[in-house]
């Protein structure tokens, strides 16, 4: 089927054998808790996907990364979501390392070599809260930072080797700064509790991660800043662009799964099938274009605006495509297997990731008028 041929070819090139292995496992098994998908991804070299080859990684750029994410989502939406949290964190670390002489390259070498997975403890998933709003508090003990707080839901919570988290640094003088903390998952004081109660995306290990007075060396703390107009700094912005593009790819992959079923089974009229195929292919081209802009250096404030526009535009296509595909697949397909209902339910979650259309409306309108994009 040509609809997803490019995505699966790219996935095979970077992660040999993974697509075929996932395709041989029933969807509902891959979407259940304790599924093998995450470890299969680790075994195929997924943790190093966007790390430069000189440091042992796959060296994938944004275009290939979004295509691979779409391919993964057609096999397991939970796996695509979980690994998106890893990849956008790693991409941010790659950007930091390129302008730093610090420990970052050593950490990236370790991630690629030892196939370490990095969970995201940012505010993603919390209503009316930005992706980089601090979720943790850190106090200085004279030698190290001691971090406390919780993140729920936190994907990869049970498979993570490292946790990246937005942290409010509380200095002894009473001032507060925002930073990113890189925390080994085996650190004393980290516990995991059940949280995710929905059947949709249940395989992403999105449970509660609790930190209680966890010791973090100051070298593992990266302070963040904002510009004079309130816009995010370069590192935050780049990470946010990666997040928006990858998370959009996840849900477009879900829609593509349903469209592929319609085309394979030749449901509906030729015009109806063509409408689904062109909608998915067109959205993929739009997303690839935004990713190519990122590869070409467009990860700044304007790039973030374009990434949000891409996400909201593709989200409209996803909703229409999913609804049309479910209708064309028909009632008997719907009642004979839980897969159609599952995919339709999972696709709706694209609207739950920050920022929402409502919360970003003023920021995008301001950007259209020529101002920097400033997200709350």
What do you see in this structure?
- The structure is a single chain.
- This protein is α+β, with helices and mostly antiparallel strands.
- It has three domains: 2-116, Butyryl-Coa Dehydrogenase, subunit A, domain 1 (Orthogonal Bundle); 120-223, Butyryl-CoA Dehydrogenase, subunit A, domain 2, CATH 2.40.110.10; 234-368, Up-down Bundle (Butyryl-CoA Dehydrogenase, subunit A, domain 3), CATH 1.20.140.
- The protein has twelve helices and eight strands.
- The chain has helices at residues 5-14, 18-23, 27-30, 37-43, 62-75, 77-98, 104-114, 234-265, 270-295, 301-336, 339-347, 357-368, and strands at 118-121, 136-140, 145-154, 162-170, 176-184, 190-193, 207-216, 221-223.
- Strands 1, 2, 3, 4, 5, 6, 7 and 8 form an eight-stranded mixed sheet that branches.
- The protein starts with a helix and ends in an 8-residue tail after the last helix.
- 48% of the residues are buried.
């Amino acid at each position: 089927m040509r609809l997803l041929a490019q995505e699966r070819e790219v996935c095979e090139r970077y992660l040999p054998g993974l697509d075929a292995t996932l395709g041989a496992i029933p969807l509902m098994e891959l979407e259940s808790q304790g599924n093998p998908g995450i470890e299969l991804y680790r075994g195929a070299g997924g943790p190093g996907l966007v790390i430069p080859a000189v440091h042992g990684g796959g060296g994938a750029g944004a275009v290939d990364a979004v295509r691979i994410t779409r391919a993964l989502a057609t096999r397991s939406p939970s796996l695509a979501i979980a690994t998106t949290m890893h990849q956008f964190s790693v991409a941010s670390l790659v950007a930091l390392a390129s302008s730093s002489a610090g420990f970052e390259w050593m950490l990236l070498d370790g991630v690629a070599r030892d196939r370490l997975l990095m969970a995201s403890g940012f505010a993603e998933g919390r209503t009316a809260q930005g992706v980089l709003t601090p979720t943790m508090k850190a106090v200085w003990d004279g030698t190290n930072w001691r971090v406390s707080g919780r993140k729920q839901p936190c994907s990869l919570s049970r498979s993570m080797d490292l946790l990246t988290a937005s942290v409010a640094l509380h200095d002894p003088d009473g001032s507060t700064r925002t930073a990113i903390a890189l925390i080994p998952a085996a650190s004393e004081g980290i516990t995991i509790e059940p949280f995710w109660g929905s059947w949709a995306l249940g395989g992403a290990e999105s449970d509660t991660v609790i930190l209680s007075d966890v010791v973090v060396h100051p070298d593992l703390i990266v302070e963040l800043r904002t510009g004079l107009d309130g816009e995010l700094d370069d590192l935050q912005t780049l990470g946010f662009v990666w997040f928006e593009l990858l998370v959009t790819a996840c849900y477009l992959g879900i829609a593509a799964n349903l469209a592929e079923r319609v085309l394979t089974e030749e449901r509906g009229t030729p015009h109806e099938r063509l409408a689904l195929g062109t909608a998915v292919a067109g959205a993929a081209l739009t997303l690839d274009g935004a990713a190519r802009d990122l590869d070409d250096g467009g990860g700044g404030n304007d790039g973030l605006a374009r990434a949000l526009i891409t996400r909201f535009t593709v989200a409209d296509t996803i909703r229409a495509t999913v609804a049309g595909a479910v209708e064309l697949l028909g009632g008997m397909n719907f009642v004979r297997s839980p897969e159609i209902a599952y995919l339709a339910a999972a696709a709706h979650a694209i609207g739950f990731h920050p920022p929402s259309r409502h919360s970003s409306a003023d920021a995008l309108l301001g950007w259209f008028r020529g101002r920097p994009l400033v997200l709350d």
